[in-house]
Amino acid sequence: MFNPKTLSKLEFDKVVNKLRGCCASALGVEKALGLNPSTVLDEVAENQAKTSEAREVLRREPSPPLEGIFDIRPHLWKAQKGGVIEPEGLIQIASTLGASRRLKRLLQDGEAPARGKNPKKAETARERVKAGPHLTFLAEGLFPFPQLEQQISNCIDETGEIKDSASPELKKLRRQINQMQLSIKEKLEQIIRQTEYQKYLQDPIVTIRRDRYVVPVKREYQQHFSGIVHDQSSSGATVFMEPMAVVRINNELRRLEAEEEREIERILRQLTSMVSVQVDQIYHTVEALAELDFCFAKGRLSLLMNGGEPGISPRGELNLIQARHPLIPGRVVPVSVSLGRDFDILVITGPNTGGKTVSLKTVGLLCLMGQAGLHLPAETGTTIPIFNRICVDLGDEQSIEQSLSTFSSHMTNIIDILGHADSDSLVLLDELGAGTDPTEGAALGMAIVEHLLERGVKAIATTHYSELKVFAYNNPRVENASVEFDSETLRPTYRLRIGLPGRSNAFEIATRLGLGREIVERARTFLSREELQVADLLQNLKESHLKSEEERRQAERMSRSAKTLEEDLRKRQQEWKEKESRMLQQAQEEALEIVRRARSEADGIIKQLRQKSKTEMDSREIARETTEARERLGQLQEDYYTGWRGAKPVPQTRADYKPGEAVLIPRLSQKGHVLTEPTPSGEVQVQVGVLRLTLTTSDLAPDPSEEKVTGYSPPEIGRLMSDKTREISREVHLRGMLVDEALQELEKYLDDAYLAGLSPVYVVHGKGTGTLRTAVRKYLAENPHVQGFRPADTYEGGMGVTVVEMRP
Question: Each residue of 515-555: pLDDT tens digit?
Fold first, then answer.
């Protein structure tokens, strides 16, 4: 159990009040009021896990079925003692059991309560809710009571009235009572309408006094009206009398009402008996509901604070990352604090109103919250140790009654702290050594810090003494820290800087508060030269620290940017490889389709020649044309299989390729010319159409169908092309190429053909789907070297060839 005084100083009770506001029932509020930090690691870890699971459920289902939960323990106690539970108590029991049933369904079956009229949306909600193991285990303690819940609902309505349908006897009695009441009213209505009675009545109405139907009679006529007096008005001028004619009927009504009350009593006893039989399980369910409501309250508080689950350090290391004080409204400047790894004690210096005390309270309060199972308003990676004790000396507790000055009150607290603090303690000291002579106060502060260090205590102390800054600098297990102060705006920034001692900035603050400048300047002259040098050194350290921090942040940004760029390039490279593979596969499929069609066309040509032979040709001409057709089509098929399927044997690769040499690239099914000598690692540059590729010699094979281009040098591509134009064929083969690649090849060929003076020329584009043929003819219509073009005749290649006439 932590010291209540410590909890109060760190404002833990205010956090508990915020937690109470997040509870859905009095059961959860009771749990919240009993919240206390734990010193058992496993218990803290379990409580943190419950909070995380509840937060996750709330994130998916913001309104879990917690409404309708009541503290029904007094009613259960009454049932145990043999009493009868009132209708209101039974309604609360049924409501609580109903909430338990819905909550169990949510946590164990993932079924959220349907809201609205759209069943699809309700089904989606049920699918997306899944509780963790701790909440699921708690839900196992929610026992079902469907019969009891249904029986109470059948007997009592929402207002607490017993329903007529609660029993057949009650229904019969109430029907008789209604009939009797109507009979009495009719009899009284007849009486007040009779002329002889109207002068006796104060008003011609029927009313009720003492559960009896009566009429208002004037006092002076009381002796003339036959009946029983039950009441009188406050003035005494009117008496309420029950006419003798209805006394018997009223007596019968009273008897029926008494029987109705006895039947209601019997029904309530029966329902109470059903409760008492299952009272132990209901008690267990109530306890589980209280724990679950408390867990969801912690989860809701975590969402409100934008908190997260801290890690639990078994090695006693504290590391708060961008931690925010949970009780400060609005935008809060976060602080990052660490203890226990590189150093055990942190000495914070800096100006007043700069945030030193808030930083101290933030650390202490967040440690308490974490050990209480609450999430912390800090960033991911935050870890806390388990402290057995948190000792605090905050504020000024001077007391006239106890004759305590500021210094005495601080020393009293510190003496008590030193008597109890150990290696499992966290000590927070505000304004260490203040309230006495600065020299002696600083000496005491250093001695206290040294004593805490020897005992292995984790501590944070705030001070204005320069001696403590030097002490922290010289001790490896003590670290300086400071709260920032903007010397330009003369205002604190509230940012905490670890590793950098701070200045008190008393002169700057005094100037901002309105102290005369001449007084401030005069005060500066009283400082010694060493003190001025120390102040300047601290300022230079601050500026250097800020500069290095900015450079570090910039380096981190550049590193992240480089990683992002690298990942993007890797992804694009993968996409290009996949695209290349798809293109090659598509081209191969198209080539095979062309081969298949070529075979079919060959059969057609042979058939035509045979038919033609019967009418137009002699046998020798038929044989000659048939042989030529077979050879031409056989060569066409062999070319396709060599280029795409590797049916023709590919010459063995070698490593001594020369510039200008024609080569095959088997894996790309392309031809090219070598541009450079192979490097020591075996890489060469190859010109493939308009592309310039860097490949290894193992990727290449000599092209037996081409000769080496003599006199070749890489910069003289134009001369190489002019050599080719002198030997240009009348045919250009575009089959198997993509549209863009084919048009580029066609453009180069037409330029060469024009320069060579060839006409006509044959563009072999194949039949295929017609896409390439359409693109080729559209290009030919716009080319300035083309005079005209036409589809080839059957003997010229048919639909797979276009004959082009070149301009002279």
Answer: 888 887 787 777 666 555 555 555 555 566 667 777 777 88
Q: Where are the beta strands (DSSP E) in 516-650?
A: none
- The structure tokens listed for 235 are 């003035």
What are the tokens at 496? Answer: 């905490």
Can you read off the two tokens belonging to residue 677?
A: 């000598």
Token pair for 754: 């024009």
Residue reference for tokens 């998916």: 60
Which of 103, 68, 76, 21 is closest to 292 using CA atoms?
A: 103
Q: Is the peptide bond before 329 cis (omega within 30 degrees of 0)?
A: no
Spatial separation of the C-alpha atoms in residues 498 and 337, rounded to whole Å: 8
The structure tokens 């005491």 sit at 444
Amino acid at 469: K
Helix, coil or strand: residue 432: coil
Q: What residues contact residue 639 under an 8 Å CB cut-off, 6+ apart?
A: 733
Helix segments in 63-167, DSSP class H: 73-80, 87-109, 119-127, 133-139, 146-155
Which residue from 105, 96, 87 is spatially nearest to 281, judged by alpha carbons?
96
Q: 519 is written with which tokens?
A: 């007084």
Q: Which of 214, 211, 208 is nearest to 227 (CA)?
A: 214
Of 234, 216, 237, 236, nearest to 225 by C-alpha is 216
Burial 730-741 (b: 16+ CB within 10 A, else e): eebbbbbbbeeb
Q: Give the separation between CA 613 and CA 598, rounded to whole angstroms.
A: 22
**Consecutive 10-residue runs of the chain (808 residues): their mean pLDDT?**
81 93 93 91 94 93 91 94 94 95 88 55 54 92 94 92 92 92 84 79 84 86 82 87 85 90 94 95 96 96 94 92 91 91 91 83 95 95 94 67 64 90 93 84 92 94 86 89 71 78 66 78 70 56 65 81 85 82 76 67 61 52 57 56 46 74 79 86 80 80 63 40 55 86 88 78 84 88 88 79 86
* DSSP bridge partners of 429: 393, 461
Which residue, among 305, 289, 461, has the nearest Cα to 369 in the 3D structure?
Answer: 305
Token code pair at residue 607: 């058939």
Q: Which residue shows structure tokens 């194949």?
A: 766
The residue among 256, 374, 314, 282 whose CA lies nearest residue 12 is 374
Mean pLDDT of the chain: 82
Q: Which two tokens stand for residue 239?
A: 């008496």
Separation CA 287–CA 628 (nearest Å): 100
Q: What are the CB-based long-range contacts (under 8 Å, 24+) for 669-676?
A: 669/584, 669/587, 669/588, 669/643, 669/644, 671/703, 671/706, 673/709, 673/712, 673/720, 674/700, 675/714, 676/714
Asked whether 398 and 406 are in contact (CB, 8 A), the reply is: yes
Q: How many whole angstroms separate alpha carbon 345 and alpha carbon 720?
A: 80
Pairing label, strands 227-232, 335-339: unpaired
Give Cα separations from 217 to 193, 197, 200, 203 (angstroms). Answer: 14, 9, 6, 8
- Shortest CA distance to 283 belongs to which of 142, 399, 377, 167? 142
H, E, C per residue of 535-570: HHHHHHHHHHHHHHHHHHHHHHHHHHHHHHHHHHHH
User: Do you find a cis peptide bond into 310, omega within 30 degrees of 0?
Assistant: no
**Nearest-angstrom CA–CA distance, 228 and 251:** 13
State both tokens at 94.
Answer: 């049924």
Sequence-ordered list of residues with C-beta below 8 angstroms from that of 451, at least 6 positions apart, any chain: 418
